[in-house]
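hey so i finally got around to running the thing on that chain from the lab meeting. sorry it took forever, my laptop kept dying and i had to restart like 3 times. anyway pasting the input first so we r on the same page abt which one it is
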Amino acid sequence: MSLLAAIAYAGEAYAVQVERCEPTAYRAVFAPDQPLVWTVELRAAGARPAGALHWRLHDLDDREVAAGDLAAPALEPQATATLTLDAGRRPPGWWRLSIATVADAQLQPTRYAVVMPPTRPKDLKASRFGLNAHGVTDDEREMELFVRQGAGWVRGSHLWHEVQAWKPGEDWHGKAYNWSKGDAALARREAVGLSTMGSFGFSVACASSKDPNHKNWWGQSFTAPDDRSDSGPYYAYVKAAVERYRGRIAYWEQWNEPDLDSFYKGSASAYAETLAAAFRAGKAADAEVRILNGGWSGSRGFARVDDMLKTAASVHDVAAFHDYNSPIAKTQAVKRAYRRAGVWPRPLWNTECGKEPSLREDRPLDQRLPYYREQAAEMVRAMTVAAALGVERTFWFCWAWEPFAMHVANGPRPVAGGYRALADLIDAPVPAKPLGTVDLGAAARGTFAFAFERPDGLAVVAWRDPGAARFGVGVQTITLPIDAGAVVVVQGSDGRTIPAKPRSGMLELTLADEPLLIRADGACAALRKAIGWTRRYASVDGVLATADFGANSRLVNLDVEPVARTGSEFAGRVAAASDKKDGKSDRAKFYVFCKLPTDLAWERGDEFGLPRTPLRLRVTHLDNGKGAIGVQYGDGREARIERGNTGTWKTSIVELPEGGSGHSFSYHSNFRLCSYGWSGGEDVVVERIELLGE
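ok and heres what got predicted. didnt touch it at all, straight out
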């Protein structure tokens, strides 16, 4: 054999077919002390001498972190060989394995793995993290992985069309319920400590004569059941379901997105009657059960939701909604809808949020990777904002049902590692308390930083608004004050650890579109002081944010002198004084300078940060002068708070007009309280400023 022929033959030797490449860890979820191991199965089309496979391992940034050769034995025609590929131990994060059978050939197949740290102790019932179980298998390991993933709740099961059906003309009273599927699913979840939010599902065709498929009696129906009375089949089914699972399922969702034609075909009043029937039946079976409406979509506005709430507002305990792309705006819109219906406050659950990578799995990975990264980033943004907004539970959509899947045939997407990292940060060992937003300064335009109280310290989740690039805002550098001795860990949206070390009491981080998960264990006094406004998204009185000057004088301009009225009834309040030179002035002016939280400026503003609606403030102040207190924007527009010099504390509500062009709010979100022109004594003494919602 010539040398050239030998080289060609050897080249073919590397081209054996990779029939199978599977991880040894279930769904490719590994622990840091566990090597990434794949089982590789080869098949030869013809006789092949011994050769080698080349493999490469990449991280989320598509950087090659490891590579190697895997020896392959000689193979007879159609023979197979099973090999073990050990890529070594890796830190938490997302990893991609590629295999090449010929050097310099396209690396195939590609498989994904995610490394998660050991499960942290967690109160699963109190958890605010849930998953939609679409695509789940009957494997018991699936439920164990739900817990390991960081979830405490699972959405769905016990749909009516899976439990009962009858042929048109038959008496439904004689049709027994088949609970076997729901029983089995619930038992698997309870075995690992997961809680279930039950789903009554839609109607069934046999109960809805207006359904065009009424004669296909076994199918589900998106039209309301004909009989919505207490003696009808729907009432009986709901009552039977709640009775059967009393003490095991405490929350039930009725229908899905009834404000969309794709899931509900009928009048607003008919849906409200269906929800009312479920509410009556559930309460008859268990007075403690909590009924949720079918999650409002709101993707076409809230006009139909308003119509349904006219009669449906009082027949559900929890307001369910679905929010995929606008967590702040959508949640606030839901709250406004319930305020219009006169039934606010109401517990909020987001029973679907998700992100669909818009490219199929069979497209080249370099094309899909940016969409994978954005899916993970959107999960962090959506779940973080929901927690900060006071949403009690949020269910990510979904587990393994394409195209939204967290786990696909090739393994877990990066979103799987990010979900776990965020759950550890703000949901373990108990749900963290939202504190407010960190003031990152005027330069951090379009940047969000939400702070949470953990039992062992503070957590901050920060990101740059993905839309900020349209306004010339690129990668940003932010700094957070860190106390000496505090232990800081920073993670990305796939769960990987990002090197970060405080220097001189400050932690400097570079922010792009990917959110950063920041955990500070230990003393966090400096970081707490940077949380200037306490956000109150879930408040019952319409307060969006509070600046408490008695506890946090950071909001007072540095040129202003805090004056404590110790030894008197005014102890702990703050007076602000400026425009005094050498302590002398016969016409002293007093100012309190305030800056809105960055996220509030963008939440309430247009694309340039200008307020779209009037700014309503509630000010708690000392009534210690006859002259009015001016509340001003930087361009001079103002409103006034009248004073009567009574010497008592007073609460006043004042409204500033919506923004126009060219004032300082657009860049600094500034306003100020001031007194002017008076000859001493009439200072501005403020205890609290509250920003009110609509």
